[in-house]
Amino acid sequence: MARNLQVAVVGATGAVGQQMIKTLEERNFPIETLTLLSSARSAGKKVTFKGEELTVQEATPDSFKGIDIALFSAGGSVSQELAPHAVKHGAIVVDNTSAFRMDENVPLVVPEVNEEDLKEHNGIIANPNCSTIQMLVALEPIREKYGLNKVIVSTYQAVSGAGAAAVDELHEQTKAILEGKEFTPSVLPVKSDKKHYQIAFNAVPQIDKFQDNGFTFEEMKMINETKKIMHMKDLSVAATCVRLPVATGHAESVYIEIDNSDVTVSDLKALLQDAPGVTLQDDPANQVYPMPADCVGKNDVFVGRIRQDLDEARGFHLWVVSDNLLKGAAWNSVQIAESLIKLNLVK
Amino acid sequence: MARNLQVAVVGATGAVGQQMIKTLEERNFPIETLTLLSSARSAGKKVTFKGEELTVQEATPDSFKGIDIALFSAGGSVSQELAPHAVKHGAIVVDNTSAFRMDENVPLVVPEVNEEDLKEHNGIIANPNCSTIQMLVALEPIREKYGLNKVIVSTYQAVSGAGAAAVDELHEQTKAILEGKEFTPSVLPVKSDKKHYQIAFNAVPQIDKFQDNGFTFEEMKMINETKKIMHMKDLSVAATCVRLPVATGHAESVYIEIDNSDVTVSDLKALLQDAPGVTLQDDPANQVYPMPADCVGKNDVFVGRIRQDLDEARGFHLWVVSDNLLKGAAWNSVQIAESLIKLNLVK
């Protein structure tokens, strides 16, 4: 496949959409024409791509004629409505929302983990949840070599996962607190939920709405998506997801139990040192470990603080950090598009 | 014991010392004379107690003549040096540093958990690490009723645990970032360690220095102190400790495995509803859960987000929040002093 492609970005003016456009440019993705789509409200805005000014157009069912690949990141309801039209027009949809992730006809793909699943696509490919992606990039090499039984994760998630308005709220609220001024939370933890809480100088144990079982949807996404992507229906996975006063960069404290009982920390470091998409930052003696503030703008998943559990020989603890807008969203979507080309799946 | 006591606070001008003085006043602790002690540098400062202005004096080996109870919170080296002198003069020392915590002749006490251990004291009683205390207040009623096998905790800790200078650094750095100005970290994560990192809008997976086994001392404190306080040498405990851009209020994501296999979330809620020192805040449908910003200035430990693990019937997840300067330090110390009186241990 040598021809350049017709590519569309839906949600082009959003936090993730902007990163998608930037990533397509940085990767020099083979684009013939880039079509930028958005809601009627944002249509008309100008966006620069490769030095050229492009005008954002309103996304409609007919926007996808002739499009080869459409990257969606405009919310689940937009994907529900427009992705089927894009597919009907012959486009392959890479959807960054949760709309189709658990649909058994839709591959849910982290290229470092299950790129081959792309071959089973029926027009739509789902991009997993940000916190799932970075965890699996770190765990897949371990699972492949040493087996994996159990995952218990506690997250430290940035507000940009809740969109640009959440970042604004964090900054404005922080400023108000420092100046001793009043403020009224209105976006976090979940814009559409009943109550809103202070995020500045706080930690909020709610991301997305609650399910009846006491877990949030974010936690259930991590649990269910991990099992689907790793093709391990019976893997034990538990998650507690917490929002922090950090703009960008998710961190995760991950406990795992592997099958093999004579693996050392050195074995895991050697494995992750060479793992695709991973940068190992693990040198406690020199205070080297990953942090959200250091990962911003980088595509990789950063892993450090690898320790063997003191009681369970098959147990290990890891600290996993990545830019939630890049590997957690825009970069993983563009990477899926690159894999589609590599695997010759774009007609 | 009806008489009023001679009480000393060592480290009276520090973040915890100030809270101790406030707590002694609020609790109307039976004080005849309150002696405030500090380093030579802070001596001479004035502190108000019950409407009276007291002058802080330099702590020396002779400061403890006639003192009944001395509350220490001036750093481990001060406790190492002066606590033995205080004991020689007949005082009972309640030490908030890590100096004597793992000494087998020193009881390490959380009154809700092991108040009876006070009876074994030899002059010094150690106040546990802040993050250990709040976790054990939440777990002890569960351990007592249903048994406890395993604890895996990831913490979300406030900077005030590293002292007043760390709180200043958080606020000044946050302001600098919002104003786009330069800044140079110099306090966090550990003042005496080689490198210092940004804490504002970040999450730093290092509290205290690293040990050779890859765990930090803070993590090892949680592990070892939990076993000592609960008298469970063989309990499996693992910790990952993380510093957040929060001034006051530690949070913890705690996973436990209990002995009993037919316990429900309702059972645990009912148990914790009536547990000493615990306030249950657990109503996901109404977005009720504990948060650091809500716990400041309160003595209790707040517990919420109680969920049964989806794979392990004996596994439960909890979210535990408390004011690290109060139950984590000043209030637990004063509470120990109250227990000493109650148990008739003050001669």
Topology, element by element:
The structure is a homodimer of 347-residue chains.
Chain A: E1 5-10, H1 15-26, E2 31-38, E3 46-49, E4 52-55, E5 57-58, E6 69-72, H2 76-88, E7 92-95, H3 111-114, E8 124-126, H4 130-146, E9 150-156, H5 164-178, H6 217-229, E10 236-240, E11 250-257, H7 265-273, E12 278-280, H8 292-295, E13 301-308, E14 315-322, H9 326-342
Parallel strand pairs in A: 1-2, 1-6, 2-5, 6-7, 7-8, 9-10, 12-13
Antiparallel strand pairs in A: 3-4, 9-11, 11-14, 13-14
Q: What top-tier CATH class of the largest domain in chain A fits best?
A: Alpha Beta
Overall 3D shape of chain A:
globular
Number of structurally distinct domains of chain A: 2
Task: Could you tell me the CATH topology label of the largest domain in chain A.
Answer: Dihydrodipicolinate Reductase, domain 2
Compute the number of helices of chain A.
9
Could you give the order of strands across the largest sheet of chain A? 5-2-1-6-7-8
Helix percentage of chain A: 25-40%
Order of helices and strands of chain A: EHEEEEEHEHEHEHHEEHEHEEH
Helix/strand class of chain A: alpha/beta
Mean pLDDT of chain A: 97
Terminal CA distance of chain A reads 8 Å
Subunit structure (chains A, B): Homodimer.
Catalytic activity (chains A, B): L-aspartate 4-semialdehyde + phosphate + NADP(+) = 4-phospho-L-aspartate + NADPH + H(+)
Active site (chains A, B): 130, 250
GO molecular function, one term (chains A, B): protein dimerization activity
